Amino acid sequence: MLEDARRRWDEKGPADYDLTFNVYVDRDRQPLRHVVMVRGGVVVFAACEGEPVQFAPELAGVVGLPLAGVGKSRAYTVPLLFDHLRKLLDDEGEDRRNFLIAVFDPQTGWPRRFIRRVRGTPVREEWNLKLWKLGELDEQARRYK
Question: What is the rounded distance in angstroms from the CA atom of residue 25 to the CA atom of residue 68?
Fold first, then answer.
């Protein structure tokens, strides 16, 4: 299923998109809110809870920020989300059956939501994602001004 979704993304996914997502960690009901802007398959801007995480090198230099990024969080693109899911599956191990469920977009394959829980521990992560076509997020933001 993961490989099929990734194949759909590789074949039909846009190179330019915005990604917003909330990540719930363990039992904390306050999510970490992320925004990532991708152009040509490369992150040009990413923020977590309103704090910059990553800029394109051209932008970082203009605003006087380090080129390697500025935040503690990671700027996830859709391909990096697939890598994260693959790592979660690979880390399961033979001695433990953890819970992992994911929902993928039927057309382009991007992960819409996934939840992982490690059996016998309080470790849990839940991701709720929204992929925006170029310009849609800007339009949504204008509605709330």
Answer: 25
How are beta strands 32-39 and 17-25 bridged, if at all? Answer: antiparallel
pTM of the model: 0.81
Asked if residues 74 and 87 have their Cβ atoms less than 8 Å apart, the reply is: no
How far the first Cα of the chain sits from its last, in Å, is 40
Contact 55, 49 (CB under 8 A): no
What is the rounded CA–CA span in Å between residue 116 and residue 97? 11
Residue 81 CA to residue 88 CA, distance in Å, equals 11
Higher pLDDT pick, 6 / 31: 6
- Neighbouring residues of 28: CB distance < 8 A, sequence distance ≥ 6: none
